[in-house]
């Protein structure tokens, strides 16, 4: 079963193309995390918020990443992180064209 990690936090920027340039190395490093499948980056410049929706192979890998990422964000001066971990219902997600198939790691 796959697990979604939903993370958001207050951030003053950068956003948009500046965010993409500033966090490019970070994005590449996330690909190397244990159990990581994909991430959707989220941002709301008007509200001063950013975050992401991640997919992990296991709950344990999502929890491990969240612990590490929360510490990293604290080092960036972001002490408060909102996060939730959800199990993915693959059958219904596939019916609604979600990027998860019944088999873990196989994307449609």
From TrEMBL:
Keyword Transmembrane found: no
Pfam families: ydhR
Gene3D superfamilies registered for this protein in UniProt: 3.30.70.100
Full protein name: Monooxygenase
NCBIfam families registered for this protein in UniProt: PRK11118.1 (NF008333)
Keywords (A to Z) from UniProt: Monooxygenase, Oxidoreductase
Organism: Siminovitchia sediminis
Keyword Flavoprotein: no
GO molecular function terms noted in the UniProt entry: monooxygenase activity
């Amino acid at each position: 079963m796959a697990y979604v990690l939903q993370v958001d936090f207050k951030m003053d920027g950068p956003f948009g193309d500046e965010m993409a340039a500033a966090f490019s190395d970070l994005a590449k490093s996330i690909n190397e995390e244990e159990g990581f499948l994909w991430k959707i980056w989220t941002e709301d410049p008007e509200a001063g918020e950013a975050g992401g929706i991640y997919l992990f192979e296991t709950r344990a890998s999502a929890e491990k990443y969240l612990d590490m990422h929360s510490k990293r964000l604290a080092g960036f001066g972001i002490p408060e992180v909102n996060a939730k971990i959800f199990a993915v219902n693959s059958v219904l997600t596939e019916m609604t064209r979600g990027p998860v198939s019944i088999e873990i790691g196989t994307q449609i």
